[in-house]
Automatic annotation (TrEMBL):
Keywords: Oxidoreductase. It holds the Pfam family Transket_pyr. InterPro entries: THDP-binding, Transketo_C/PFOR_II, Transketolase-like_Pyr-bd, Transketolase_C. It comes from Rhizobium croatiense. This is 3-methyl-2-oxobutanoate dehydrogenase (2-methylpropanoyl-transferring). Its cofactor is thiamine diphosphate. It comes from the Bacteria.
Length: 337
């Protein structure tokens, strides 16, 4: 089986989808000849031509608005927002148009678009290249939200998203593009070529949207995470020597509540980790659901570990970033409660 980085897995997903279905089109800023700022679309224009993989003006609202119109006429656009931080001009198109087409048309129209966007920090991108806006999409009825944590999932979930009849927000943790970063920034990063989840089939396969995965079995405490924080949680549990069960959500909307409830019912404790700012982050929804469904099984309050309620600080990157030290302290807190 081939070994791929997450960049290569994302590119392979688009390649497979474009080869399978002529209605799949890829466009965005610099995704054509240049191959994207992270090279996720490299080679697609040369292979499929300028009518199926092409560059756009610097207009996020225009990119998404055009994709919605194309989808209404039967195409399947997979568009790139160069950084998740740039999606705000397109938010109106996403929430007022894309998310509502099926409902407003009584099912006569669907909106099979995928909006890809690199998300999160850890690359010294500062306040305008490090944001994690996933919670802004999970509040919107009609959207699906995916955050993969590894190349194998990245390809299978992206193909599933492209084949889905409704709009999917596909957030790619940029700090994971080349390796499973665990938050230990002082150490060399292990490349995906040396990780089991770097093994990726070259052909077509899908992973069901809305199904979480248990990355580490345990009985003492449940850690719920997604994206980069999955690897941070695994490192924190290992560093702390705690028998933690680590759940990789993969899909935030729809959410695999059954897997979360089953785990917390078993462990009686829960820590929720995400990179986005704490207040109104997606972790708050997870905590609420755990309290609602697992209250009589909890042996300690549910604890959140997240970014600060500030713009992402360039000068204090690793203080803001929820690393294994912060997660480890949270694990110790719930174990001692």
């Amino acid at each position: 089986m081939a070994r791929m980085t997450m960049i290569e897995a994302v590119r392979s997903a688009m390649d497979v989808s474009m080869a399978k279905d002529d209605n799949v089109v890829v466009f965005g800023e610099d995704v054509g000849y240049f191959g994207g700022v992270f090279r996720c679309t490299q080679g697609l224009q040369a292979k499929y031509g300028r009518t199926r993989c092409f560059d756009t003006p610097i207009s996020e609202s225009g990119i998404v608005g055009t994709a919605i119109g194309m989808a209404a006429y039967g195409l399947k656009p997979c568009v790139e927002i160069q950084f998740a931080d740039y999606m705000y001009p397109a938010y109106d198109q996403l929430t007022q148009e894309a998310a509502r087409i099926r409902y407003r048309s009584n099912g006569d129209f669907t909106c099979p678009i995928v909006v890809r966007m690199p998300t999160g920090g850890g690359i010294f991108g500062g306040q305008t290249h490090s944001q994690s806006p996933e919670a802004l999409f999970t509040h919107v009825c009609g959207l699906k939200v995916i955050v993969p944590s590894n190349p194998y999932d990245a390809k299978g979930l992206l193909i599933a998203a492209i084949e889905d009849p409704d709009p999917v927000m596909y957030l790619e943790p940029k700090r994971l593009y080349n390796g499973p970063f665990d938050g230990h920034h002082e150490r060399p990063v292990t490349p995906w070529s040396k990780h089991d989840l770097g093994e990726v089939p070259e052909g077509h396969y899908t992973i069901p949207i809305g199904k979480a995965e248990v990355r580490r079995a345990g009985s003492a405490v449940t850690v719920v995470a997604y994206g980069t924080m999955v690897h941070v949680a695994l490192a924190a549990a290992e560093d702390a020597g705690i028998d933690a069960e680590v759940i990789d959500l993969r899909s935030l909307l729809p959410l695999d509540l059954d897997t979360i409830v089953k785990s917390v019912t078993k462990t009686g404790r829960c820590v929720v980790v995400h990179e986005a700012t704490l207040t109104s982050g997606f972790g708050a929804e997870v905590v609420s659901l755990v309290q609602e469904h697992c209250f009589y099984h909890l042996e300690a309050p549910v604890v959140r570990v997240a970014g600060w309620d500030t713009p992402y600080p360039h000068a204090q990157e690793w203080d803001y970033f929820p690393g294994p030290g912060r997660v480890g302290r949270a694990l110790a807190e719930v174990m001692e409660a």
